[in-house]
Amino acid sequence: MPDLATILAGFGDAFTLVNLAFVLVGVATGQVVGAIPGIGPIMAMAIAIPFTFALDPLVAISFLVGINKGGLFGGAIPAILINTPGTPDAAATALDGYPLARKGQPVKAMKMALYASVTGDTASDLVLITLAAPLAVLALKMGPVEILALMIFAFSIIAGLVGDSLVKGLIAAILGLLLATVGLDPEHGTPRFYFGWFELFDGANLVSVAIGMLAVAEIFRRIAGARRAGPQPTVEMGAPGAARRVGWAEYWGCRGVIARGAAIGTVLGAIPGIGSTAAAFMSYASARKGDAGGVPFGEGNIKGIAATESANSAVMGANLIPLLGIGIPGSIGAALLISAFKIHGIQPGPLLFETQARLIYGLFGAMLMANLSNLLIGQVSLRLWSRVIRAPESVIFPTALIFCFVGVYLSTGGLFGVGLMLAAAALSYVMTAFGFPVVVFIIAFFLGEGFERSLSQSLVILDGNPLNLLHFPVALGLLALAAASAVWLGRGGRKAATT
Q1: N or C terminus of the chain with fewer C-beta within 10 Å?
Q2: What are the φ and ψ backbone dihedral angles of 266, each rounded to 5 degrees?
Q3: Residue 242 banded pLDDT, cuts 50, 70, 90
């Protein structure tokens, strides 16, 4: 465990003017991209990663965290104003947010979304700060066999919960692991699958793959599926008086659904693969079932907004619990942070608390600072969002595509990285078309090197005899859980859990 001096030094690094400036810019950027349907904070993070290469590691990661946190609230803005969620998890917010806006209270709806989002996010961050270090200590006591079993268990959960088919999820994971084997063998230094392209000796570039599969592929999908529809019905922003305020009594009246939503989001966020959309709808269903009287849900009940926004925002901090504690990303956003760590020469995982404790606690401080920034920027910019959400796609997507090309070219030092990005985008497009979850593929790709190393070490330790697993009860338990989860999720347990 880090000593108090290291912890205080980390928080001191976070609260500097430079770091504060980048957190503010990141949060503002996140709110903007979250408010534009089809962009979202994940695409913005993927595009921004190459441009953070020249920054200090803490500043770079704080900037990316700010984008992610700002996007959590930003996605609720178009859901409330034009009934079009800016991010998938904001679909639940639209159920009551848009009806409340149509009643002449759009500012009140957005303010409640903001307050609930910041509250849930802060609660989740406090759980992260409390649990991450003890989990890292526990993870460091695990050997290669236990780590391998833990990765297999994580893959079984992620593959079953993301997408509609366990089989397709496992295939996507295998493909991701296969791509991770490109380059030099970490054990013998033998080149593999480079097909004469010496640029692949170090493996497929993380930034090229991430931007291609997440940002470029999504831009292509949006352009291909563009429809010439009429303008969405909008609401007026100028309602006076109480219709624009969320008083303390009104906020306190929602404390129960906010607390429950934060708890649901934190628990589900700590489980790799579930995501914020499931948390938002589960919290909404829980609030709807437990609340009687007042405005019916679905007709502008402010508690419906509070429940969904507190849950989907709480997922963000909790997603970093498995990443920092055991080295396994809990979401695509956490997986992108892995690539940000790596381009700065930092290996994610439980050893971070020994080798980079000051950086990690600086990150914790930046996360808390981003929550406050989210609240302040959201308060002063509500009027801007009604204009941002109407930005034409003919401007948004070409601009984003240019940033993708420039960012990858600069980070990889040539056109080969751009070609790899386009190949990754084509693969993502095909996988999505056939129902294979891209999220599982990317997480498996990011974990591939560690998985292969643990597998090689485990084979040596076990001397090639599976019966030697009997001497590793923790690994046996994790493998049993992996098999049980695969059977349960394969038989439709996921659908039963969400109904």
Answers
A1: C
A2: -65, -45
A3: low
CA atoms of 209 and 221, how far apart (whole Å): 17
Biggest alpha carbon–alpha carbon distance for the chain: 75
- Residue 383's φ and ψ, nearest 5 degrees, are -70, -25
Q: Residue 394 burial (CB < 10 Å; 0-12/13-18/19+)?
A: exposed
Alpha-carbon dihedral 320, 321, 323, 327, rounded to 10 degrees: 170
What are the pLDDT digits (tens) for 94-107?
A: 888 888 888 878 88
Q: Is 409 exposed, middle or buried (0-12, 13-18, 19+ CB in 10 A)?
A: middle
- 183: which 2 tokens? 């380059």
496 is written with which tokens?
Answer: 């039963």
What pLDDT, in 10s, does the model give residues 256-281? 889 998 998 888 777 765 667 777 87
**Model pTM score:** 0.74
What is the rounded distance in angstroms from the CA atom of residue 372 to the CA atom of residue 304?
A: 23
Within 10 angstroms of residue 53's Cβ, the number of other Cβ atoms is 14
142 in Cβ contact with 474 (< 8 Å)? yes
